[in-house]
Amino acid sequence: MSNAGIARPYAEAIFAISIGDNKQEQIKIFLINLAAVVEHKEIKSLLKNPGFSKERQLSLLTKILKLKPGLEYNILNKLIRSSRVILAPEIQDLYNKSCDIYNNQQEVVITSAHPLSDTQQQTLCENLTKQTQKQVRAIFNIDENLIGGFRVKINDYVEDHSVSGMLEKLQQALINYEDSSYATT
Q: Per the count of CB atoms within 10 A, which of 72, 127, 133, 140 is most buried?
């Protein structure tokens, strides 16, 4: 079973609790912070060490995250007691996806060769909102290797409107053309 398969029930339970307690954003921030801490090389090493007790894990992470008794502390305690705290990054990702579905939102990564103006960003977001029929939460990146244009990533789907993408398609078409012309001779 993949880590996502193991993390899913925890993410779903945390999501259900956060909705019930109306603490969706608060828990999202907590999980982002927990995932970042757990991914730290030294912390990850400690958490994977069987000699580092669950009590010490809870004490360490409580201090680092500055938690007080409450929902976040209880979630952390449950994850540690069930030996799943190391899955915090996967849990956080699945939790965020559940939040997006619940709130009819879609995260979109837009990478352009050059910075986009506010008007261009707004127009892109409006078009993507119409296309996805969801409220778009855009993340804008710059990649000068695109030469010009932009690339849109929605989940696993990538729509490439960049100059470098067009050049790659042209190159592939030429390679395929050459391969097919040799096959007919």
A: 72
| Judgement on whether residues 61 and 136 belong to the same structural domain of the protein | no
Selection from 151, 147, 156 nearest residue 114 by Cα = 147
The SS3 call for residue 142 is strand
Q: What is the pLDDT of residues 52-69, one digit of tens each?
A: 999 999 999 999 999 999
Q: Which runs of consecutive H residues, i.e. helices, occur in 21-162?
A: 24-39, 41-48, 54-65, 71-81, 88-102, 118-132
Q: 58: domain range?
A: 3-100
| β-bridge partners, 67 | none
Whether 172 and 110 map to the same domain: the answer is yes
Q: How far is CA 177 from CA 160, 170, 183, in A?
A: 22, 10, 10
* Domain end among 100, 129, 145: 100
CB 67 within 8 A of CB 73: yes
Contact 24, 35 (CB under 8 A): no
pLDDT category at 4 given cuts 50, 70, 90 is confident
Which residue, of 100, 134, 155, is where some domain finishes? 100
The alpha carbons of the chain give a radius of gyration, in whole angstroms, of 22
